[in-house]
Amino acid sequence: MAVASVxxxxxxxxxxxxxIDKRARQLSTxxxxxxxxxxxxxxxxxxxxxxxxxxxxHETGARANTFGREMAPRIAKALRAVPTGAPGNEYRHxxxxxxxxxxxxxxxxxxxxxxxxxxxxxxxxxxxTAAGAYEVYExxxxxxxxxxxxxxxxxxxxxxxxxxxxxxxxxxxRIAVVAVDAA
Length: 183
Hints:
Blueprint: H1 14-26, H2 31-42, H3 58-79, E1 82-83, E2 90-93, E3 96-103, E4 109-113, H4 114-119, E5 122-128, E6 134-140, H5 141-147, E7 149-150, E8 160-164, H6 165-171, E9 173-178
Parallel strand pairs: 3-5
Antiparallel strand pairs: 1-2, 2-3, 4-8, 5-6, 6-9, 7-8
């Protein structure tokens, strides 16, 4: 995934620029690229080179699973969605069977199992905002399938499809904003 760049004017001391230029020559890259690399490294970006793009491991995945199972019923209650009794945050809402999935503020994707996609008509993505509320987007399964990609996780490979939060915002329909306290 390409990340857009924005021209930025910054003032750096001459000795610092000389060091940046020296490192850029060593790596056969531009000054701008070198500054970007140094900032990404200093800010703790993940291996994919994007800020906040830490890969999920077993422990963080388990925490995310617990969080989703605890928070989804609160958001569903605010939406007046009714549990179907099936596992995996499945609800009935506005005459549709939906999978309600959550993404924390820095989480780039929403994951749904292929098995779940066969049972539901809609995927609801509750995307956490910087303020801590959740914007809930609705996406028909057919649209989800057009924008999905397989998970690369060893434990989820062949089981889970991912759609980016950006795709939900662009191709889905925002149906609610839920404040956690009100959920």
